[in-house]
Input
Amino acid sequence: MDETEFRRLCVDALEGRLDEPTRRQWEQLRLADPEFADFYNRVAMAHRALSTRLASTGVSVAGRPPRISPRWFWLLALLAALVGALAGALGMDSWIRHDRNARAAQAAQALPAPAAGNTLAPVNRPAGGTPRPEAAAPANQPVAPGPVLKPDPKPAPKPEPEPEPEPWFVLTRAEDTDARVLRPGANEYAEAAPGAGFWGGYSLRLGRGSIELSGGDCRLVLSGRAELEILGPRSLRLLRGRLALRVLADGLALRCEGAELRLATGDFVCTSLRGLAEIAVVAGRLDAELGDDRASVGRGTLLELARGLPEQRLDAQAAGALAAECAAMTRRVLWWHFEDGPGDCDEGAVVEGGLDGGHALQLDPTRPGAGSGRFEPLFAARGTMRLRAWELTDAASIEISARAHLAQGIRRVGMKVPLPAGSGWRMIDVDLSGLRGGRHWELPGWVEGANYSGLQFSVPPQPQDRLRSFALRVDDVEIYALR
Output
């Protein structure tokens, strides 16, 4: 017999209408389960109250009346409805209690087991016995909610490892050398192989041979018995040896024998040997500071890093040897020096008064530019390539233009290049990836693998003097790729 059938038979049991086997089974359930007994007591109270009410009116509950008077019919129907509502309410209350007990049992199973050796029995279970029935809560009291179990917190995700920062300098080439590197916090030098990266605080030491480094908008070659310390992304200290640099952007800082040097775009060779140091400006400019002494020198100057910062001009032979030393870091693609005539240049005139008293290419005022107007390719785009040239003009900027031979046709490309401040011959060194094409410069001008022709130099309208016509001379034009 289940719970539903037990409740349905409660009124029949009260009125004695159950047969003997059913009554015994019903009686066993009532005595075994306190909830069943509680439900029976409530039904009995309701039945007793109804019997008393009907007895006062002369109506019998247990027996079937032979005939019911119509005036009592509606009263009996109302009482029957009240009894049904009360039975439904009691059934709902019993279901709520059953659900609460089931939830409490599930929560108890989720709790950790008591530690070994704990002899304390639960409150509702005597040691070694069966559980005691819980006392039923009064009918007019709200049902106490079961324990609320918080979900286990999600484990915190493991932090992703931070990517290693880009090295400030990378060793790109080593020739017959025993180069070693001392890392910050290390006590011994370790071997330095091509591809190794270096950051602030790293020191490089050579006993022989040479190594080439790239980074910090420069290329440099350290050779001989040398030692170099990396101070920052664009800051170095030469302790001894020989250092050749090609600087691609203004502002590289170099320290040597107490002197603070600020290098502009250009080529430099610095030597430090047994306390004596000097730096040669092959191309570009530098500013030097040593104690209270200051100096600013340009191309073709040898500056001694000693008291007073004495300087002297480089002779042609020494300047050529130093230029070749710096050029070894590059691969030359195109070279116009105009000492043997115009070469590939059919726009402009070759005149005297070039760099170092040589020859240069002069812009014809009636032509749009000076350089090559031919359609024969001069060079092909292969990776990163740069253009270096010397300009003599009063304008603040120049324009470089060329033709890109693409599969869809020829595209005119160009770029405007500001000139360094100052007067006289000024050098530019630009990345050709800055070339742009299209009417509004909206198209890329540097296309990998494309051939280029018609390289020319001109003076664009100047913002401060748009109506003035500027003269322009160009010398030592070089297109190169870094090794």
